Every structure is written in structure tokens, then in C-alpha cells.
Amino acid sequence: MKISDIYSEYMIPKNLGEHMLRVAGVLKVTADNWTGEKLHNEALIIAGCLHDLAKPMTFDLAK
After folding, report:
1. 50 and 20 in contact (C-beta within 8 Å)?
2. Taking the model in full, what pTM does it have?
3. For residue range 19-30, what is the model confidence (pLDDT) as tens digits?
4. From the CB of residue 48, how many other CB atoms can be counted at a distance below 10 Å?
5. Nearest-CA neighbor of 52 among 18, 26, 25?
6. CA 8 to chain CA centroid, nearest Å
7. Is it the case that residue 11 has pLDDT exceeding 80?
């Protein structure tokens, strides 16, 4: 399943999806330039893409 499919299925607001993709971008740049112990770059990027997936549950929809 693609990240975009997950965003669609869970009805992630566009601005939140963009935020998660920006976080993934920062993680990619960091991982690509990391000189320490080997990292699992793909796992870091996926984690960045999904890190706020449950955030909409905290929204006050009454406002």
C-alpha cells in the first residue's frame, strides 16, 4: 500500500499530509548525510511519512 493510499483511507487533511512528507524529507537528508552507524533509511522515511497519522483524533471538530 502506498503512503498516499493510507492518507486517503484515513482521510488525512492535506496540510497534515504535507507536514508528514516534509518531516520525511528532513529525515532523508539527515540519513543520506549520516556518518555514524548505518541507519535503515527506508524505515526512517516511512516513519516520517506516518508519524502523525493519529493526529486527527485529537482535533476538536466542534469548532
Report:
1. yes
2. 0.85
3. 999 999 999 999
4. 21
5. 18
6. 14
7. yes
Which distant-in-sequence residues (6+ apart) come within 8 Å of 21 by Cβ? 48, 49
- Residue 9 and residue 27: Cα distance in Å, rounded? 24
- Sequence spans of domains, the chain: 3-53
Single-letter amino acid code for the residue at 19: H
DSSP letters, the chain, are --HHHHHHHTT--HHHHHHHHHHHHHHHHHHHT--SS---HHHHHHHHHHTTTTGGGGS-TT-
Cell of 50: 506516518
Distance in angstroms (rounded) separating the CA atoms of residues 9 and 47: 18
Q: How many CB atoms lie within 10 A of CB 49?
A: 21
